[in-house]
From TrEMBL:
Coiled coil: none annotated. SUPFAM superfamilies: FAD-linked reductases, C-terminal domain, FAD/NAD(P)-binding domain. The active site is at residues 506, 549. Keywords: FAD, Flavoprotein, Oxidoreductase, Signal. It comes from Mollisia scopiformis. This is Alcohol oxidase.
Length: 569
């Protein structure tokens, strides 16, 4: 096609929350041309995407990449499903729509490890810049919604609100009173930098159209007629193409494959921005010669930049759940969440913490690609955050309605530890870009993660057995007291947690923003070390997990990235 001979100022690889935010903001500048290359299709009219109560209906369909992890050596040897959106809008087209930001001190720690310019105060303004909160209706307020107006944006591209189907009545006070009985306070708004407590969360949804607000609806469709913004759908980026240079590597474009199989080169004048998500951006770097030389050698890929952190530092959270039958029918959606700090659910939690031994075992498990000393430093910061009370537990309540299964009397209570110490990796397994990368999150490599998840499981079960909640529950349907008795031993809890968990779908860190000597891949400007003009803007750059859900923070990172890129124009 004629277009593929065009030259764009910026080429953005991947049309998810990271990529479409950057594409929108850069194409605000007239005279600057931007191309987005997206492997998936448009899903504007796909009911599995648009339905506000449709979470899970898009999973395992054609718009899900449907990755699978390696056998998890520290978690019963099982493989895990990894869902990821393959559509314009990325994973935001198939996700749970939860809008919860990080904890203040968590973002400040990004600056503390050596990323100049990163702090909560700075990112807070970008969270707000991206957001447009639709004020709750009177019915939603009487269903228990609370919020702090100053914590929210009013005119950003991303519409945030509450589902109309929110369960009405007093059920929310039952939940709130039960948490209060367990000394967990109500949090009027978890999006102001302080996450601990019980609340009704906000969702990424367009209350006027009553549809899911994905990244394409927020950041692309409103500006799709801009003549300087071009989206290539059903087109896959294979690798970055390099120009001649003596010093740092200079990208001159990308090699792409169209849906008909033909291969072409798309040229860039200024920068290539990788936003293919934390499971694909590192793979594209490796296919382009940036990464660990021993991995690149294995597939006959010439080394452009020796950067062993590429694909490492993968952090994801393990998700277990209880399902309870009740004496009620829930004909509304329940989006209730409780965030607990360590002392809320785990007595003497830091009695046997051994940061240096965790660092050694993680470093050994990832072939010393990140030195034990670097991990020990990073784990020390993570530990300090826990000591200072940032939430490490999320336990939520939802109904089958939330899961796209319609109303009934079941309550589903998924829960997960937020900040695991375990680290894994994602790497190419072939020089053929069509072959999926190998994903190994190393769940429960660090024993402490298992202990936290077990303590959290007990806390969630305790919640279900505490009044006034208790009176509503008729039975535990899954796993049930036969499989996991009330007085289960630690060995029984451990075995249940390890066999019944799934990925929480929050993988990040695989092109981490950290100093190079710590195993980082991008600097504080999100530029890949050793390159002149390649950045990563997606979940890959987050150096630590967050006590929230990822998209809100990815949009904020991408808003900030856009300003940094504009400054360098
Ligand atoms: C089941 C599930 C539920 C979740 N629930 C929530 C939630 O409730 N709230 C929340 O905040 N977060 C949630 N998340 C996480 C969140 O959706 C993701 O973290 C987020 O979308 C990641 O954004 P991204 O920009 O990093 O990448 P993505 O959204 O994954 O976007 C990457 C894009 O790049 C494209 N791409 C990949 N490789 C190539 C290539 N080689 N060439 C061209 N294009 C390519 C992909 O098709 C995709 O469109 C959930 C995730 C899952 C899987």
């Amino acid at each position: 096609s004629e277009l593929c001979l065009d030259r764009y100022d910026y080429i953005v690889v991947g049309g998810g929350p990271g990529g479409l935010t950057v594409a929108n903001r850069l194409s605000e500048v007239s005279g600057i041309s931007v191309a987005v290359i997206e492997a998936g299709r448009e899903v504007f009219n796909n009911p599995n995407v648009t339905s506000v109560d449709g979470f899970t209906t898009a999973l395992n369909t054609a718009i899900d990449w449907q990755y699978i992890s390696t056998n998890q050596s520290y978690a019963s040897g099982q493989t895990l499903a990894y869902h990821a959106g393959k559509a314009l809008g990325g994973t935001s087209t198939i996700n749970g729509m939860t809008y919860v930001r990080a904890e203040k001190s968590q973002i400040d720690s990004w600056g503390a490890i050596g990323n100049a310019g990163w702090s909560w105060d700075d990112l807070f303004s970008y969270y707000k810049k991206s957001e447009s909160l639709t004020l709750p209706t009177a019915a939603q307020l009487s269903s228990g919604v609370t919020f702090v107006p100053n914590d929210h944006g009013e005119s950003g591209p991303l519409k945030v609100g509450y589902p109309y189907g929110l369960l009405n009545g007093s059920f929310h006070t039952v939940v709130e009173n039960t948490w209060q009985a367990l000394d967990l306070p109500h949090n009027p708004d978890v999006n102001g930098g302080s996450v601990r407590g019980y609340t009704i969360w906000q969702s990424t949804l367009d209350m006027v159209a009553n549809v899911r607000e994905d990244a394409a609806r927020a950041y692309y469709y409103p500006v799709e007629l801009r003549p300087n913004l071009h989206v290539f759908l059903n087109t896959t980026v294979n690798r970055i193409v390099w120009g001649n240079s003596d010093g740092a590597a200079v990208a001159s474009g990308v090699e792409i494959t169209f849906s008909n199989g033909s291969i072409s080169i798309l040229k860039s004048r200024r920068e290539v921005i990788l936003s293919a998500g934390s499971l694909r951006s590192p793979a594209i770097l490796e296919l382009s010669g940036i990464g660990n030389p021993s991995i690149l050698d294995k597939y006959g890929i010439g080394v452009k930049v020796d950067l062993p952190g590429v694909g490492e530092n993968l952090q994801d959270q393990p998700n277990n759940n209880f399902i309870s039958s009740t004496n009620s029918t829930f004909n509304g959606s329940i989006v209730y969440v409780a965030y607990g700090s360590m002392p809320d659910f785990f007595d003497d939690w830091d009695a046997n913490i051994n940061i240096s031994s965790y660092a050694e075992s993680v470093s050994a498990a990832i072939n010393n690609t990140i030195a034990a000393a670097s991990l020990e430093y990073l784990f020390g910061i993570q530990y300090k955050l826990l000591q200072n009370g940032i939430p490490n537990a999320e336990t939520i309540m939802e109904t089958t309605l939330n899961l796209g299964l319609g109303p009934n009397g079941l309550l589903v209570s998924p829960f997960w530890l937020l900040m695991p110490f375990s680290r894994g990796n994602v790497h190419i397994s072939s020089r053929d870009p069509k072959v999926y990368p190998t994903i190994n999150p190393n769940f429960f490599l660090v024993d402490f993660d298992l202990k936290v998840q077990m303590a959290l499981a007990k806390w969630t079960r305790k919640f279900l057995a505490t009044e006034p909640m208790k009176s509503l529950i008729t039975a535990e349907v899954s796993p049930g007291f036969t499989a996991l008795p009330e007085n289960a031993t630690d060995a029984e809890w451990e075995s249940w947690v390890k066999t019944a968990f799934s990925s929480n779908s929050h993988p990040l860190g695989t092109a981490a923003m950290m100093p190079r000597k710590l195993g980082g891949v991008v600097d504080g400007k999100l530029k890949v070390y050793g390159t002149e003009n390649v950045r990563v803007v997606d979940a890959s750059v987050m150096p630590f997990q967050v006590s929230g859900h990822l998209t809100s923070t990815i949009y904020a990172i991408a808003e900030k990235a856009s300003d940094m890129i504009k400054e360098a124009m």
